Amino acid sequence: MKNVTDPFVSLGHWPSAGSFGFNTDILATNPINLSVVIGVLIFFGKGVLSDLLDNRKHRILNTIRNSEELRGGAVEQLEKARTRLRKVEMEADQFRVNGYSEIEREKWNLMNSIYKTLEQLENYKNETIQFEQQRAINQVRQRVFQQALQGALGTLNSCLNNELHLRTISANIGMLGAMKEITD
């Protein structure tokens, strides 16, 4: 049986006097073939590879630029948020202080109002007591006067006779007439 590589080996032994042939020596042909392939790839693929690398470079730069812009915006928003937070904290402290002072002020106002109301109630109570005392005194006076008048009338009626009664009436009428002349 013949070896399959025999025809190639026999081709390799042909003389190289201007003819075309295959070199079957692997160690000699691989670096040449690789250098030809690499040369062709570099020659034709240089533009494509360069374009791919440039596109990748631009995408990376754009991504970095966008990231920097986003970072700058985030830093700016963070500073604004910190400023707002400080402002809100100051306002909260101010409200807290104002709230405490307002509570104290309202407490004192309420206490003063309660004292004034109690004072007024005490005055009203005293006035009511005085009024009731005066009314009671007036009622007692009226009863005493009525009883004294009734006693005097009873005494007069029992002691007076018709003649004494007429003289007393005449004297009183005379006194009223004299008073009328004085006032006129």
From TrEMBL:
UniProt KW Transmembrane helix keyword:
yes
Please list every transmembrane segment annotated in the UniProt record, as residue ranges. Answer: 32-49
Primary localization class, coarse: membrane
Protein localization: Membrane; Plastid, Chloroplast thylakoid membrane
Q: Which InterPro entries match?
A: ATP_synth_b/b'su_bac/chlpt
Q: What topology in the membrane does the UniProt record assign?
A: Single-pass membrane protein
Question: What keywords were assigned to this record?
Answer: ATP synthesis, CF(0), Chloroplast, Hydrogen ion transport, Ion transport, Membrane, Plastid, Thylakoid, Transmembrane, Transmembrane helix, Transport
Extra remark beyond the main annotation: In plastids the F-type ATPase is also known as CF(1)CF(0).
Q: What is this protein called?
A: ATP synthase subunit b, chloroplastic
Q: Which organism is it from?
A: Rotheca serrata
